[in-house]
Amino acid sequence: MSNDPEDRTYSIADLAHEFGVTARAIRFYEDKGLLSPRREGQRRIFTERDRVRLLLIVRGKRLGFSLSECQDIIDMYGAEPTEGAQLRRLIDTIRQRRESLLERMEDMRLTLDELDQVETQAQRILDGVNGEPAVAQGHTRPARETVVSACRAARR
Fold it and tell me: pLDDT band at residue 151, thresholds of 50, 70 and 90?
């Protein structure tokens, strides 16, 4: 029996537990050709290579990469590490993902700013001019119209 870590095998349950994914997700990755365990009857036997590939998939998904992009990263991982074209492609993929995340982050910042403004305006309307709720002051403006005007005021 070999003590080489490369000879170690894993069950689907082992990998599911280690990476916090479901057995169904692992089977899905297998169906997509990202993993290729050998079979003993109905049982899947995963190698260290499969384990590393699953690690790359889970990491890629956590970073927001598509399965296709994960496949590209896995393919690059398996290639000669000094292959410049593949490393440039990996860097390009990372830079594109970073740019996408930065754009989303800016969109979320703008949305949060707008929500803050609308909340502040709505609170001012609720508090009224004299510190009393507008409803207590006898204002009967429909709620929808009040919120719409608060949104418009927040955008100014």
Answer: low
What is the model's pTM? 0.61
DSSP state of 64: T
Query: Between 5 and 21, where is the model more confident?
Result: 21
In a domain, 84, yes or no: no
Residue 11: CATH number of its domain: 1.10.1660.10
The helix (run of H) or strand (run of E) holding residue 62 is helix 48-62
Residues 6+ apart with CB under 8 A from 153: 121
In the chain, DSSP assigns E strands to 9-10, 38-40, 43-47
What pLDDT is attached to residue 16? Answer: 97
In a domain? residue 34: yes
3-class SS letters over 109-136:
HHHHHHHHHHHHHHHHHHHCCCCCCCCC
